[in-house]
Amino acid sequence: MKALILVGGFGTRLRPLTLSVPKPLVEFANKPMILHQIEALKAIGVTEVVLAINYQPEVMLNFLKEFETKLGIKITCSQETEPLGTAGPLALARDNLVDDSGEPFFVLNSDVISEYPLQEMIDFHKSHGGEASILVTKVDEPSKYGVVVMEESTGQVERFVEKPKVFVGNKINAGIYLLNPSVLDQIELRPTSIEKEVFPNIAAEKKLYAMVLPGFWMDIGQPRDYITGLRLYLDSLKKKSSPKLAFGPHIIGNVLVDESAKIGEGCLIGPDVAIGSGCIVESGVRLSRCTIMRGVRVKKHACISSSIIGWHSTVGQWARVENMTILGEDVHVCDEIYSNGGVVLPHKEIKSSILNPEIVM
Amino acid sequence: MGSTEERVVAVIMVGGPTKGTRFRPLSLNIPKPLFPLAGQAMVHHPISACKKIPNLAQIYLVGFYEEREFALFVSSVSNELRVPVRYLREDKPHGSAGGLYNFRDLIMEDNPSHIVLLNCDVCCSFPLPEMLEAHRRYGGMGTILVIKVSPESAYQFGELVADPDTNELLHYTEKPETFVSDRINCGVYIFTPDIFTAIQGVSTQRKDRATLRRVSSFEALQPANRSLPTDYVRLDQDILSPLAGKKHLYVYETKDFWEQIKSPGMSLRSSGLYLAQFRFTSPHLLASGDGTKNATISGDVYIHPSAKVHPTAKIGPNVSISANARIGAGVRLVSCIILDDVEIKENAVVIHAIVGWKSSMGRWSRVQASGDYNAKLGVTILGESVIVEDEVVVINSIVLPNKTLNVSVQEEIIL
Known about the structure:
A: 361 residues; B: twelve-stranded parallel beta sheet; 31 strands; Mannose-1P_guanyltransferase (chain B); ADP-glucose pyrophosphorylase family protein (chain B); nucleotidyltransferase activity (chain B)
């Protein structure tokens, strides 16, 4: 079985992290974002994954070589020379996606983190016999997104409404699709939107069905949602009693700690924290609701909450970092400094406190 | 008459990528020394100035960038100006004087009688032949270019005191907290080869102190120089300050323009200063037009030969347009740098801004700023490939590469 992951563009919403690394390779819960999806696809028997990209192909290709062998799955890149929207890349990758088997193929959005109920989706697709299946998820504020209006019992999709001004439903497009090869016949090789052009046509023919995603869903393309997404993800690990979660007297709630990370005495870690490989957390440190990327050193008595600390950065002694502070790669926060929502570009030293959210270039 | 003996080698310090972050976001896409001012790379200006020195044997660019970032530029400028230019990469920081010392063997290969040392990020008229002549008259080890600035701004620089008759450097202090002098160090120097001996002296002294520290705990407690490696020698604190008042160093004062180019805002100001200088030194580089066959040009404007500007546009003063840019009908450009491959559609307006490579501005869009070169958001910067849609206004903002603006913004940094 085949799959396409829409990786797309520059990941500008995840800057400053994406100034150092292309977005799909930014780690989430200590694993590159795209690896979460590739592993889920491999688990249900997908043999080939095509990455539709238009930015930094060299970096992506190096990453792929490493993981192709490790995972035993074929990974190829389909590079857009001009942005093709959300459907165009499918036409571009046509030859990789369809073969003689006539099997349907998956399409995933690279920013989405969820339970990936892919086997259930295959079963659902077979049972309704339509042309395309999409996963939808229930949200509190549907008017921020594209709402999918569907018939509750069968899941047959009636129509899509983009950012509706009145309430038409609370299920939105979760960005995970299972499509028959015939869908590709409807997509031209030009900038095309799958939500605005392709799906409405299939829905009109009554061949589009939606399945409600059980479990969590998050678009982690921006820092605030990335942090919320980590909470949801760790929560789902807890529900499955995953052995990956850390435990101990210094751990509160759900916490992920890479085995090569070192944590000192008298720390209090959690809830909802991920600590990456090679990190050193010195004694007396308090961490909550944050992600500490690879190679970071958090010095004694520091306190970090609701923030993301970029690769190889350091947070000084008694520093306090909170409220959506995002540190890029190689940022050094000096001792006793306070950062309230500072967004700091790579290779900077923070020598004076940031009292209000601001971007430090 | 001794002219074959009097060869000169010039060294231009160009810095490195992680050193100065003040030039972001432009430095995210290009090494600062290669950013164009008045249509020529920043480092091109001091290189052209060096060419005016008689018997110039070689120009070295010294920095921390990868060699490949300068390869193309170095070969092209060597051909264009017919002077050997070579890029040398420092493997680790040696300090402003240590860097020069690090390459002394190469520099002395041409057996120069004088060494010109320049900082690349200085916008200046570089009066090098006159300065060299003055240096010969003084007969010292070094001559420093100085300029008078307002007393309130002097603290940002190295302040010097010189003897008004002999021009000897009497006192030098770097970024003092209290006022010392309104004459400041321009970052342009002429030295005789004795400078290397002086730099070596500092290294040796530091080595001796390090040895002493192992012996005496008192020395170990002295804060000064405690953490500096022995081969890290700073020109200002380690050479100029100690040697002031010892009849080794002299000053040469310039009354022309001078600016430090640390921020993108200052690069716009510097571009204007160089354009104004072209009016005297190279008027053929400046554009002209009156709206009939070519666009209306006001003041000093540079337009690359491959750029296309609609005749109904009005350009200037202080505008520089780079290669392949396309300026549409009715566009107004004032005080701005338009980089390569930019497309500006009809009736758009740009005032006090830098529009990044491959960006595009829609019809009736407006990109402007207050024009305060020292303010963080005083000059609007659009990074590479930024799209400003029709009728959108961008004021006093900085936009990082690859963003599309479909709503107006003011006083914002957009990542």
